[in-house]
Amino acid sequence: MEFVHVIIQGVLLGGLYALFAAGLSLIFGVMRLVNIAHGDLIVVAAYFAYFTMQALGVGPFTSLIVVVPAVAALGYILQRGLLNFALGDDLPPLLVTFGLSVIIQNVLLIFFTHDNRKLYAGAIEMASWKFTPDLAIGVLPVIQFVVAVAIIGGLQLVFYRTTLGRAFRATSDDPAIAQLMGIENRHIFALAMALSLAVVAVAGVFIAVRTTFNPFYGPQLLIFGFEAVIMGGLGSLWGTLAGGVLLGLAQSLGGQINVGLPFTAGHVAFLLVLIVRPQGLFPKVTA
Amino acid sequence: MALLEVNSLTAFYGDFQALYGVSMSVDAGQAVAVIGANGAGKSTLLKSIVGMIRAAPDMIRFDGEAIGGIRPPKIVARGITMVPEGRRLFASLTVEENLSIGGQLGRPGPWTLRRVLELFPMLAERRSQRSTSLSGGQQQMVAIGRALMSNPRLLLCDEISLGLAPIVVRDIFQRLPTIVAEGTAVVVVEQDVMQALAASNYLYCLQEGRVLLKGASRSLDREAIKAAYFGV
């Protein structure tokens, strides 16, 4: 029964990783930008939620009403004001977002110190459904997983069923020709970043309810996101969910073997996938 | 007043000068052909008009307004659309999505998805296929349809015969009069001189970035065209 519990925990945790990854994968897909600052932006969202909760006296999930649009707006401005100028080659976006990552960490450190913080969600954190005397499943992880699946499904709909999604795909195929057809790439890229950070905001709040965070927590989250994207296969959103679940499972099982082992186990699973199936589980991008 | 006026247009790729003071004009409802050998500057001329290559404002006037140097999306919104060389369809989009992209700006006019599919009936049954699964000729039809969907007042066609079988080329050129009849002026850039002459009212011949010959397509002497084209 213990084993079943570990599996379920892993799967549910994987939903969260899939959310980190979906944001990364979305902007890589649309504009070939690898966002090294992705993890730090997750942390920024968590701090944003922390102070929104204090200012308005609301819970972490209610704070999303403010945090999601605010962080999305930040994404739009960041893209139009900075990242758009770095696009076009492989290296500049990497360098710029790497620099951004360092800056974000240090600005957070100056203002908020190295103290660990956490978002408190109240009784729901402890609530669980008891299936058998020794199998209980937390309500929060289940909500987190359902939200992750819903968001990934929603992104899938946006990409394949809306005018905006069509513009995302056209710009991704051929940015110069997309402009010739009247699509403003600068605006489309900024919308993609806004959408990515809206997803990041939700993920940031969930992770900050789950564990403590500080200004230097971002890079670790970035690694989880990368691992989920690569394991799932580039360019496929459902693949990203599968990659996230696989990473969550590996970490959960690793933690079962030894409390110090979960992250290592995740990395090992990632390397194994790379060796056995370097294109990822469900690749969509060919060539 | 001419719909499009190009005034002493110059264009550069780095240190290399591609156009040396090219002037041309296109009236509303006119079909104009631009011919010339490889490297004569035909594509550069079109790219300058749509804003893919920078030009000084006054070098290009559309509908009386200086539009040189304006970015491509804004040019499309004003009513100039280009069918790019080599078709350049969006590979991950279906035929219908490719067409709809052109209509996304919502410029009013005669061309709708229904009308474009009437113009190219063979696309109707393939509308939900990936654009890359079509033959070259059908892809060219999608590329023209995609441009038409933006309801341009001026349609620029960059080498639409390139790489296609002669019978397919004829089939595509047969549709041009229908497009012009809807009030759209058309500029075709071609290496196929006969096709260009037949499809146009007026013709420009470029050589090494300069206009060497121009005149009403019907009145131009074949020998003069040959001389201007090959530079002999």
Layout of secondary structure:
The complex is a heterodimer of chains A (287) and B (232).
Chain A lengths: L1 H30 L6 H19 L3 H22 L9 H22 L15 E5 L2 E4 H23 L1 H11 L1 H6 L4 H26 L7 H15 L4 H21 L4 H15 L11
Antiparallel strand pairs in A: 1-2
Chain B lengths: L3 E10 L2 E11 L4 E5 L6 H9 L9 E3 L2 E2 L5 H7 L1 E4 L11 H9 L9 H7 L1 H4 L11 H13 L5 E5 L7 H8 L2 H6 L3 E6 L2 H7 L2 E6 L2 E7 L5 H9 L2
Textual characterization of the structure:
The complex is a heterodimer of chains A (287) and B (232). By secondary structure, chain A is mainly α. Chain A is built from 11 helices and 2 strands. Chain A has helices at 2-31, 38-56, 60-81, 91-112, 139-161, 163-173, 175-180, 185-210, 218-232, 237-257, 262-276; strands at 128-132, 135-138. In chain A, strands 1-2 form a two-stranded antiparallel ribbon. In chain A, helix 1 (2-31) runs antiparallel to helix 10 (237-257). Chain A is globular. Chain B has 232 residues and is of the alpha/beta class. Chain B contains 10 helices and 10 strands. In chain B, helix 3 (95-103) packs parallel to helix 6 (136-148). Chain B starts with a strand and ends with a helix. The chains are: A mainly alpha (287), B alpha/beta (232). At the A-B interface, helix 6 and helix 7 of A face helix 2 and helix 3 of B.
Summarize the structure.
By secondary structure, chain A is mainly alpha-helical. Chain A is built from eleven helices and two strands; from the N terminus they run ααααββααααααα. In chain A, strands 1-2 form a two-stranded antiparallel ribbon.
SSE string of chain B, helices as H and strands as E: EEEHEEHEHHHHEHHEHEEH
Number of strands of chain B: 10
Give the strand order of the largest sheet of chain A, numbering strands 1, 2, ... along the chain. 1-2
Helix fraction of chain B, binned, reads 25-40%
* Major sheet description of chain A: 2 strands, antiparallel
Assembly of the depicted chains: heterodimer
Kindly state the number of beta strands of chain A: 2
Q: What percentage of amino acids of chain B are in beta strands?
A: 25-35%
Q: Flag low-confidence runs of chain B.
A: none
Query: What is the average of the pLDDT values of chain B?
Result: 93
Please state the CA-atom Rg of chain A, rounded to the nearest Å: 19 Å
Structural class, from helix and strand content of chain B?
A: alpha/beta
Largest interface: A-B, 17 and 24 residues
